[in-house]
Amino acid sequence: MEKPPSRMKRYWKIAVIANIKDESQPKPEGVPPDAFADFDHIETIHHIQGALESDGHETKFLMADRTLPQTVQEYAPDICFNIAEGLGGDAREAHVPALLEMFGIPYTGSRVLTNAISLDKTLTKRIWRDRRLPVAPFQEFLTADDPLRPELKYPLFVKPAREGTGMGVDARAIVKNEAELRERAGWVVNTYQQPALVETFLSGREFTVGVMGRADAKLYSRHPDWYDEKDGFHRFPILELDASRSVTPNVYSQAAKAKDVGEKGAPDYICPADIDPDLEKKLKHFAYRAHFLLGALDVSRTDIRLDDEGNPRLLEINTLPGLTPGYSDLCLQAAAEGISYNDLLLDILYLAAGRWGLLEPREMTLKKK
Ligand SMILES: Nc1ncnc2c1ncn2[C@@H]1O[C@H](COP(=O)(O)OP(=O)(O)O)[C@@H](O)[C@H]1O
Ligand SMILES: [Mg+2]
């Protein structure tokens, strides 16, 4: 007789950790006009808490600011659901993971090193290129006057090396000649106080591909059937971002991202994307490899664009993908295949809980006596 599964499951105390947009407060001096665009609205936190509580857990929202060392120790969570973007410096998305590691507190998602590297698009691309993932030719500019390498041909695309959510990206990111390049690179370096990443402009279609899981995901998931038999990963349906009719034609900019789905000036979100099976297979394979090579954990979303010849080129990986229901790319992808918001969030939690030893693997409980 098979024993009924007892999975050490109990109700966890979960801290939901995030940085919140506070539009009532003036921005501090010296920060770029689109600073904090990647922070979350408090409503998103409430949705996340609702999803986690639907499984019986207790949750508390903790702000990812300088109060966190104290508040997290006071609350003493079993595990944290981390979506914090961090406050500053050259690796802000690694702040909360680093702090939690110091206190020995489990948390969801990627760890310190991965979150630090993935915020830096140049370093990320160097790692991918080393393992033969396709990326556009690129060069990092530390100043506006760095000599341009000859393999970089106009038009080029210029963006901050370490931002997200389209920050520092608008229609003027596409530069057609040396004067425009110098101007834009200078603007990025001065405004964002970081290097400018200069890449070949990719003129083709744009996709984003979410993946979730790991080799032993089936042992911890609430939905083991989601995960691939061989590699243990789930690939979400591919989302195409068609920004051709958006506020910034062909560029998925901060302004375009800030629009609600369906609003005037927003890009069209097409999921699943209408693409041939060959391309679909490639994009999903690249997103899986991109995640794996950076040592990402639980969930990520990789942005990919096609070049002039229709070849996919990886732009960046988001190891803290947005989780606003009905709005964030990953949530749209999950919804397109009938995965509910609660199930998506709970699987991220269970994958992490399994990794940190809070959940007994299913294999052991289902073994025949
Ligand atoms: N090399 C490029 N060629 C064409 N468009 C690009 C290129 N790099 C970025 N973009 C556009 O800018 C958007 C934001 O760039 P991305 O690298 O994804 O940064 P983030 O989303 O972190 O701001 C992309 O979604 C894409 O529309
Ligand atoms: Mg992106």
Descriptive overview:
The chain is of the alpha+beta class and 369 residues long. It has two domains: 13-110 and 204-366, ATP-grasp fold, B domain (D-amino Acid Aminotransferase, Chain A, domain 1, 2-Layer Sandwich); 137-200, 2-Layer Sandwich (Dna Ligase, domain 1), CATH 3.30.1490. The protein has helices at 42-53, 68-75, 95-103, 112-119, 121-130, 178-192, 254-258, 277-293, 329-336, 341-355, 362-366; strands at 13-18, 58-63, 79-82, 138-141, 156-160, 174-175, 196-200, 206-213, 233-235, 239-242, 268-270, 299-306, 312-318. The strands form three sheets. Strands 8, 9, 10, 11, 12 and 13 form a six-stranded antiparallel beta sheet that branches. A four-stranded antiparallel beta sheet has the order 4-7-5-6, with helices on one face. Strands 2-1-3 form a three-stranded parallel beta sheet, sandwiched between helices. α1 (42-53) packs across α10 (341-355). The longest helix has 17 residues, at 277-293. The chain is globular. The N and C termini lie close together (7 Å). Mean pLDDT is 94; it is low at 1-5 and 364-369. Magnesium ion (MG) binds at residues 303, 316.
Salient structural properties:
4-stranded antiparallel beta sheet, alpha+beta, binds magnesium ion, Dna Ligase, domain 1, 11 helices, binds adenosine-5'-diphosphate, D-amino Acid Aminotransferase, Chain A, domain 1
> CATH topology of the largest domain, which one?
D-amino Acid Aminotransferase, Chain A, domain 1
Q: Would you tell me the structural class of the helices and strands?
A: alpha+beta
What is the number of beta strands? 13
The CATH architecture assignment of the largest domain turns out to be 2-Layer Sandwich
Mean pLDDT: 94
Strand content: 15-25%
User: Gap between N and C termini, in Å?
Assistant: 7 Å
Order of helices and strands: EHEHEHHHEEEHEEEEHEHEEHHH
Corresponding CATH superfamily of the largest domain: ATP-grasp fold, B domain
pLDDT < 50 runs, ≥5 residues: 1-5, 364-369
Bound molecules: adenosine-5'-diphosphate, magnesium ion
Q: How many separate domains make up the residues?
A: 2
Query: Helical proportion?
Result: 25-40%
The largest β sheet comes out as: 6 strands, antiparallel
Shape: globular
CATH domain class name of the largest domain: Alpha Beta
Number of helices: 11
